[in-house]
Amino acid sequence: MEHLFGQEWEIVPAGGATGEAFFAQHDQQRLFLKRNSSPFLAVLSAEGIVPKLIWTKRLENGDVITAQQWLEGRELKPSEMDQIMVANLLNKIHRSEPLLGMLKRLGKSPLEPNQLLKILELELDAELRELPVVEKSMTFLNEELTKIRCEEKVVCHCDVNHNNWLLSDNNQLYLIDWDGAMIGDPAIDLGMLLHWYIPRDKWEDWVNLYGIQLTDHLLLRMKWYVICQTLTSIQWYKNKTRFEEMNRWVLYLENSF
């Protein structure tokens, strides 16, 4: 990474799971660098959903380095996730034809609930399956599978955690970390956001801000995807031997019924 810049540039790892992100700084110039990010980043930048893409360079070894605007700002607090700017940006993402078109060109096809359920059934180990709440959850997912069909398919971020929402110092909101994006039911994102952050008595108001009505069918779809995602998280934390977080999600699951 250093050979892209002069010796006067300071380059430090930006953290994250992949180890492929870096901060670069020289005097007043600041950049966020990433190795081998998806071509999807260019469309996200053009749509104003992530900070501006400055340049892209291909290295001799075939790696592609992207440089984005490094903005002063902060992640949203959990208590701020009910704001209209969050609803507006998520609506913009779900309604974006350029985003949907790019993901399709990159070979992504809509992920149906039955595919997610098959993946989950392969992932869950025997020990977790013995937990009563996991057994109850799997029964729910199988029984409701045929009732949650949705013809609308949009670009879903799939990890709308509050720490992926970046609010810049000039009050511009961005949604970052798109590595897990897929095409699917908008209830995937809506369910996570509402179940994790918004009090139940405010769901209807928030969904109205987003631009749709809170129907029984949407409620069922959101719950289905949240249960599915929670089970996936429980297995992931168990695999990482992070049992405190695993148990926290098991408790969350028990409170979901």
TrEMBL record:
Give all residue intervals belonging to the Aminoglycoside phosphotransferase domain: 14-213
A Pfam family of the record is APH
Q: Which SUPFAM superfamilies does this chain map to?
A: Protein kinase-like (PK-like) (SSF56112)
Q: Which Gene3D superfamilies match?
A: 3.90.1200.10
InterPro entries from the UniProt entry = Aminoglycoside_PTrfase, CcrZ_PhaseVar_Mediator, Kinase-like_dom_sf
Name of the featured protein = Phosphotransferase family protein
Please name the source species.
Robertmurraya mangrovi
Lineage of this protein's species? Bacteria, Bacillati, Bacillota, Bacilli, Bacillales
